[in-house]
Amino acid sequence: MKKYILASLLSVLFLTVSCNKSDDSDISENFNATEDDKINFFIWKGLNLYYLWQEDVPNLADDRFTNLGDLYTFFSSNSAPEETFNSLLNEYGTIDRFSWIVDDYVALENSFQGINLSTGIDFGLVYNKNSSSNIFGYVRYIIPNSPAAISGITRGMYFNTVNGIQLTDTNYRSLLFGEDTSLSFGLADYNSGNPISNNTNVSLSKTEIQEDPIANYKIIPDGTKKIGYLLYNQFASSFDQALNSVFSDFKAAAIDDLIIDLRYNSGGSTNSASYLGSMVTGQFPNEIYSKEVWNGKITDYYGADSFINMFPTRIIKKDSNNNVLVDEAINSLNLQRVYFIVTESSASASELVINSLNAHIDVKLVGTKTVGKQVGSVTLYDSDNLRRSGNNLNPAHTYAMQPLVLEIKNKNDENYPNGIIPGDNFTGINLAERIGDLGVLGERSDMLLDKTLQYISTGSKAAVKKDNLIRSTIIFNSKMATPAGETMYSKIKRLF
Length: 496
Known about the structure:
Blueprint: H1 7-10, H2 21-30, H3 35-50, H4 68-75, H5 81-87, E1 100-102, H6 105-112, E2 115-118, E3 121-127, E4 135-142, H7 147-150, E5 158-162, E6 165-166, H8 172-177, E7 182-189, E8 196-205, E9 207-210, E10 214-222, E11 225-232, H9 240-253, E12 257-261, E13 268-269, H10 270-280, E14 288-293, H11 296-302, E15 308-310, E16 314-318, E17 324-329, E18 337-342, H12 349-358, E19 362-367, E20 375-377, E21 380-381, E22 400-402, E23 404-409, E24 428-430, H13 447-458, E25 476-477, E26 488-489
Parallel strand pairs: 11-12, 12-18, 13-26, 18-19, 19-24
Antiparallel strand pairs: 1-22, 2-9, 3-4, 3-25, 4-5, 5-6, 5-7, 7-8, 10-11, 14-15, 14-23, 16-17, 20-23, 21-22
Helix pairs in contact: 3-4, 9-10, 10-12
């Protein structure tokens, strides 16, 4: 491996060494470094180099610490790596809402590909209509062949207790997302938003499940038109070729319009997002799809032009040695118009596709305001080059960081940090799901799909009459508890 002087990037006295991990280790031994000290150094080093707001955090300044001993001493009072990480973020929860650290990077990597420990229920949580503390869950969909599917749980069911305890806004995390892998769900009747137990309990165990993000696709005849419909629940790169196959079917059927349902899609790979954009279009080769803004260090090292992403024409994947594993042409529909279904669970890469395509074709939305996540992250590991494949990957722990490193915009330098709002900052219809009457996904009984089909056939944006079945914004959903969460991730830039 070529050696670079890290100080040329970090400008820190104690890093004037080669990228060989043993140099860092030798220095650490001189300061009697503990394992926590070394993890703190990894956190600081990674954020100092890649963090989007590095220049705005005084403790990430290149000259903040004179040597490793100073750094170790400064962070030694922190009780855990998580505390060190959070202390270095830029107004966490306000400016930085989405950076995080994990203690199990294998679980994180799996989650990026839809593999999670789950009962198979994807659900949302909302307050009881007449309570300020009690909440209930509603089933949004079920992962096929999961414990929930085998037990007969279906979309549109409700639960208000777990292990016999009423769900509240203070206990739902421990009950649903704690260490217990065996859960008993107390089912309930909707009762106009104030669920009443129906004395049915279903016991389910969490198992490791890989969810196919292509949950449903079909061609819907509507008068003389053929409408393609795709329910896509995560931008998981291991399913890129399968997604391309779906668009091959759409192309062969010569569909007239396309509906992409991203209502439960909280994000994923920016590469997968660009592939989907080219599948919808195809008429914009060599034109700008999106632009990334990184911090000054990364931008100066590569040049701003390195962060302009063009519409791809092929799906290309390589291994760590740069050997080509996949190289196939993208099946493009060359559409001039596309419809998206969105909700408050649509985030990051979902918003990227909508925003990027809107600069090129007519994009119409049906649903509610999206999350507003125009920033992306990379995974950083404790190795020489902060990559999983780096030399001397620290075997003493499995911590990895997922810090925000980039802001992403469309070709016109636009994005929507406060969310994309149908009928407001985007053309479309602002309409919430009927939690009390969800219908069947992919069928006209689903109000959002039915309204989108009406929108296509008539162009009408007439509002649907509100009733007591329409609920307020959900307070949490099951995807938010997965290691990947509401993530838009990119590949790390290879700096050394």
